Amino acid sequence: MMMLDFKNREEYTFYLHMYLKEQEREKFRDDFLALHPIDQVEIFSELNVQKRKRVYEWIGPKEFAPIFRGMERNQQKQIVTELKESYTIKMFEEMAPDDMTDFFEEIPNHLTGYFLDRMDEQEAYAIKRLMSYEKKTAGSLMTTEYLTIQQEKTVADVFETLRTEGKDAEMIYYLYVVNENNQLMGVLSLKDVLTSSLHETVRQLMKKHVISVFPHTDQREVVQLIRDYDIVAIPVTTETNQMIGIVTVDDVMDVVEDEVTGDFEELAGAKGSINLEVHPIKAAMKRLPWLLLLMVFGMATASVVQHFEDTLAQLALLAIFIPLITDMGGNTGTQSLAVVVRQLTLEKLKHPTCRRMIKRELWTGLIMGIVCGLFAALLAQFYGFGNMALGLIVGTALFGTVVISTMTGTIIPIIINKLRIDPTVASGPFITTINDIVGLLLYFAIASSLAIYL
């Protein structure tokens, strides 16, 4: 399998297009199938409908399956409309049940039923079983294609199992040891097999203490276990310890990507609109509720300025530093929010951890507040032509704003999480607007108190 680099991609792509145009089937097959599936997807995506149809004629369903797997969901839906029904069915049967489950959950139910009714009965059953599990659980992530062996077998038997069954398994780094009732007894790594005598038994080599999860285990907990124990797959068992599947590290990577994307969307107040496949109108409708809500909060900020209109009229120099106060409040609050949300989404924070985090962020806010406050005081004194009172007002207000904003960005998501609400709803724009209001109130309150010294 060859992977293209930037140097030879253009030339390689040129020849593949030429083979399609000149209808040189064998040359196209030899060069195209030698590529990594990721490169195949990229090149295939550049083809027009006519050339794609020629590829379907030259590439069999089994060969096209890994290409289909690497495509974006919307592209997959488009490709299915171009393929012949028999080709599509055979391709689906070549794909892993967990990959097909992900695809079927994104298309209308009547189409899912239509395809499942025409697929191999055993393949269809495996997919239906996975679809029965709740989304975002280990059951919905797992694959049923894994290797098992019994503990009385020898290493020689393990090699035979790898040779005969390994091609159909999603991964062969682990062989799971089960008894006659399919209950999980241990795990055997490929390293153990390769470094042992052919006559040694599985019982002698296997690790008896196996980390496993239930089908209903939350996907975030699965991610945490795979990361903490540094494993590439984790078995899924029933309440009676019967093995029903495994969750592999590549599935976990997809989960992490989805979770991070979702958190960024929430933090930006743009949930469901980051995907480039989303239509502009739909993306706008996703973002508008947040923007309209923030407009209301923005009026509260304007009300603060209006309330101190007399102070601002007498001391116009104060207006210069309003952006500084609001920007620093928003920036520090968002920083703390990102730190806390990351901890809340990847780990389950206990009370001692929450207290330690709040304490850490408080001290961080105090240090940042002192440094930023002193620097702002010097800047204000410079702009105020040596007016120490102006420097004191701006420096003190910025110190208070940074400390309060840091704590706002820390405490609000923790409280929301305690209420069993996704902490990412305490989004960046929301925290920023709150900190704008608090920062301006503090700034003008201090300015009003010290106005006589200006």
TrEMBL record:
Single Gene Ontology MF annotation:
magnesium ion transmembrane transporter activity
> Membrane-spanning regions, if any?
290-308, 314-341, 362-383, 389-416, 428-453
**Membrane topology type, per the record?**
Multi-pass membrane protein
Q: Which GO terms describe its cellular component?
A: plasma membrane
Q: Kindly give the Pfam families that the UniProt entry links to this protein.
A: CBS, MgtE, MgtE_N
Family the entry assigns: Belongs to the SLC41A transporter family.
Subcellular location per UniProt equals: Cell membrane; Membrane
Report the protein name in the record: Magnesium transporter MgtE
PANTHER family per the UniProt record, alphabetical: MAGNESIUM TRANSPORTER MGTE
- Tell me where in this chain the CBS domain is found: 142-205, 206-264
Assembly behavior: Homodimer.
Keyword flag Transcription regulation = no
Which keywords accompany this UniProt record? CBS domain, Cell membrane, Magnesium, Membrane, Metal-binding, Transmembrane, Transmembrane helix, Transport
**Matching SMART domains:** CBS, MgtE_N
Any idea what job this protein has? Acts as a magnesium transporter.
Q: Which organism is it from?
A: Halalkalibacterium halodurans (strain ATCC BAA-125 / DSM 18197 / FERM 7344 / JCM 9153 / C-125)
Q: Which PROSITE patterns does this chain map to?
A: CBS
